[in-house]
Specification:
single chain, alpha+beta, 6-stranded mixed β-sheet, two-stranded antiparallel ribbon, 7 helices, elongated
Length: 256
């Protein structure tokens, strides 16, 4: 019996958009296709036509029911397609007559062929793609957990155990006691010079002071205008998403 697999998605560029095809996951009756539009001027009708053409092309490559959605260059679902197609989503599959059946909008689950539920056939169909079994994925998760635990332990040692050992050794080591005394005197002299305004602050201290001042300034204005801060935060998140999508599109075009 074939083991369940999680396949690596396929990404391809089409110029003004790129696509990401994901084979069906365990117990799903359809694969999924995301069309990411990389330009601001794309018309809804062109996007809808591209969704239909992509669906037909991918069905001919992999005859598994396919669910298609389109996203803008900020990662948001394109929702204006409902005006011309009655829905923002498209699903398609080969019917019993051998022709491709397209459906904009909802469709009953029992109307979707169960091709994707036949594990062995699906694994044969996608045999050219990279994948990991769910057993391998579970092993990877266990390794990550062990790594996190190990990192936490090291952090605990450096943060708690090491300072504690130094404190204990101070009572038994004259050298450490002398070093501690010298360091304390140095800090006291620094504090005295700061009080008198004689000590020149280091560049790191000056940068830290400027950052703290700016942070307090920003925080004050965020409190004064929380709605404006929320808009700014959303704009920043959208910009980050937009930049990431643009980089991904450029990388796909370079590969192509």
């Amino acid at each position: 019996m074939s083991e369940d697999r999680k396949y690596t998605p396929i990404k391809e560029t089409r110029g003004w958009y790129f696509v990401e095809y994901s084979p069906p996951q365990n117990n799903f009756k359809f694969a999924s296709l995301s069309i990411v539009i990389t330009i601001e001027t794309a018309r809804e009708i062109d996007i809808a036509d591209s969704m239909e053409e992509e669906l037909k092309g991918w069905l001919n490559r992999y005859p598994v029911p396919l669910f298609v959605s389109a996203f803008d260059n900020k990662g948001h679902l394109i929702q204006n397609l409902v005006k011309i197609k009655g829905s923002n989503h498209l699903i398609g599959f080969f019917g019993r007559d051998g022709n491709i059946s397209l459906h904009w909008g909802k469709i009953k689950d029992n109307e979707i062929p169960d091709v994707a539920l036949h594990k062995e056939s699906v694994n044969n169909l996608y045999s050219n793609l990279d994948y990991k079994t769910y057993t391998e994925l579970d092993v990877d998760r266990q390794k990550r957990r062990r790594g996190i635990k190990a990192g936490s332990f090291i952090f605990f040692v450096w943060l708690i155990i090491v300072p504690l050992l130094i404190t204990i050794l101070e009572f038994y080591s004259n050298w450490l006691a002398i070093i501690t005394l010298v360091y304390s005197c140095y800090k006291a002299i620094q504090a005295w010079r700061e009080l008198r305004g004689n000590r020149r602050k280091s560049k790191r201290e000056q940068d830290k002071e400027r950052k703290e001042t700016a942070k307090n300034h920003y925080y004050y204005h965020c409190q004064m205008n929380p709605e404006g801060f929320r808009r700014l935060m959303l704009e920043n998140l959208e910009k980050m998403s937009k930049d990431e999508i643009a980089k991904e599109a450029a990388a796909l075009q370079k590969e192509g």
